[in-house]
């Protein structure tokens, strides 16, 4: 807030927040079970000690201290009446303890009267100082236990009971970021605007808005254990990775036409870990570019064209890589195998023709590659490249039997 030069920060109503980790927001034993995430108030972040004024005339209805971590600390609920005598309530959480000492249940508060102060982090449930302001149409006799954060599956009920507090606060609309699209709307837009070849997982597609460590979070704040995404090898949003990317983008993002120490240092550190003769780096942006380049190097070096691949392999999405990926050329919309591509059996010692009880399984699977090589040479062609994923992925996360790659 200091950096942005603002005196008041706003935490939004009806916002899904995965940050409520203490036990009273849901099960702690199962981090992927539904937890309460939907914020039913508006938070106003200000200096501790800032006066809190009543927006309307009312009566002190509840005074309470909810001291658990991430709870309200000191809490005041005022009771109001509309002009046609309908009762409703306003709730103020995370106040200073002295607010409670200065008030009595039943006390009249006039509109605009300062009746409390914003608490410090030590007394407000451990939060950065702010007041949580919420409108409640029916308190359901819950008193201080009325939720300020709801389960997403009960969102309609609780936002019905607690409408948008901006009805009273009147913060200009342009101070809020653009509203996020609901998953259904995002799905409809995606169908119109993005290529239909992109597959979407699950009957009810997930709208994933955040990743942190081993979890992905959807637009309701629900956590999912990510055992599927293959990109963030050190977990999602690893702080060191985030910092390094941020710092570099802020400094320079250019190409290899110029000298730069970091690219040299990176190559040194990588090649230190690689066996001879792997001593030269080509930096690319994706797996597809890497495999495309490997194929080009092999063809340029050997002057040959043919490629041996494994069953079910996937090597990337360029035209040529689709041609050497049985998963693609045999899959939906695939064009079949090209004459310069030769497919060797997947060395799967669990389901394949040679099993784990066979100590020679690796050598036997490698024997099929030799056969292909001989057959190809017999036809007056020759092989430029044998390519295999080190752990065939769409093939079933297969670990090669011992000795397979050496033998090949
Ligand atoms: C085994 C394998 N090879 C190649 C690729 C292609 O990489 P990219 O999507 O970065 O082009 C992938 C991508 O998932 C892959 O899983």
From TrEMBL:
Domain of life: Bacteria
A GO molecular-function descriptor: pyridoxal phosphate binding
Pfam families (alphabetical): Aminotran_3, Peptidase_M23
Spans traversing the lipid bilayer: none
Protein's UniProt keywords contain Transferase: yes
Domain M23ase beta-sheet core, residue spans: 38-136
Entry keywords, A to Z: Aminotransferase, Pyridoxal phosphate, Transferase
Family per record: Belongs to the class-III pyridoxal-phosphate-dependent aminotransferase family.
Protein name as catalogued: Aminotransferase class III-fold pyridoxal phosphate-dependent enzyme
Organism name: Candidatus Acidiferrum panamense
């Amino acid at each position: 807030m200091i950096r942005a030069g603002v005196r008041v920060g706003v935490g939004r109503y009806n916002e899904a927040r995965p940050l409520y980790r203490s036990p009273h927001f849901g099960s702690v034993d199962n981090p992927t079970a539904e937890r309460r995430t939907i914020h039913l108030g508006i938070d106003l972040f200000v200096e501790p000690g800032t006066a809190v004024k009543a927006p309307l005339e009312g009566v002190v209805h509840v005074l309470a201290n909810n001291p658990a971590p991430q709870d309200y600390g000191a809490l005041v609920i005022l009771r109001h009446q509309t002009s046609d005598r309908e009762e409703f309530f306003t709730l103020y959480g995370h106040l200073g303890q002295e607010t409670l000492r200065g008030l009595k249940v039943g006390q009249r508060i006039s509109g605009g009267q300062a009746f409390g102060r914003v608490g410090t982090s030590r007394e407000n449930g451990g939060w950065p100082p702010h007041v949580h302001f919420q409108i409640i149409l029916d308190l359901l006799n819950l008193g201080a236990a009325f939720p300020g954060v709801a389960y997403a599956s009960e969102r309609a009920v609780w936002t019905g009971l607690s409408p948008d507090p901006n009805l009273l606060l009147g913060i200009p609309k342009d101070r809020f970021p653009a509203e996020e699209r609901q998953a259904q709307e995002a799905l409809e837009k995606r169908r119109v605007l993005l290529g239909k070849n992109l597959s979407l997982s699950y009957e009810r597609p997930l709208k994933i808005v955040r990743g942190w460590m081993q979890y992905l979070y959807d637009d309701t704040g629900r956590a999912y254990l990510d055992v599927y995404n293959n990109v963030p090898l050190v977990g999602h949003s690893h702080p060191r990775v985030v910092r390094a990317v941020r710092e570099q983008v802020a400094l320079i993002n250019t190409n290899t036409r110029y000298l730069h120490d970091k690219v040299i240092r990176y190559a040194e550190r990588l090649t230190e870990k690689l066996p001879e003769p792997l001593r030269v780096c080509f930096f690319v942006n994706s797996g597809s570019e890497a495999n495309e380049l490997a194929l080009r190097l092999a063809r340029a070096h050997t002057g040959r064209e043919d490629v041996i691949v494994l069953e079910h392999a996937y090597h990337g999405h360029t035209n040529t890589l689709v041609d050497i990926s049985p998963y693609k050329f045999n899959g939906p919309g695939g064009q079949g195998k090209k004459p310069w591509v030769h497919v060797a059996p997947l060395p799967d010692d669990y389901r394949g023709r040679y099993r784990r009880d066979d100590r020679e399984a690796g050598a036997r699977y490698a024997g099929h590659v030799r056969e292909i090589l001989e057959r190809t040479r017999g036809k007056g062609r020759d092989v430029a490249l044998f390519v295999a994923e080190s752990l065939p992925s769409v093939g079933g996360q297969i670990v090669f039997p011992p000795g397979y790659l050496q033998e090949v």
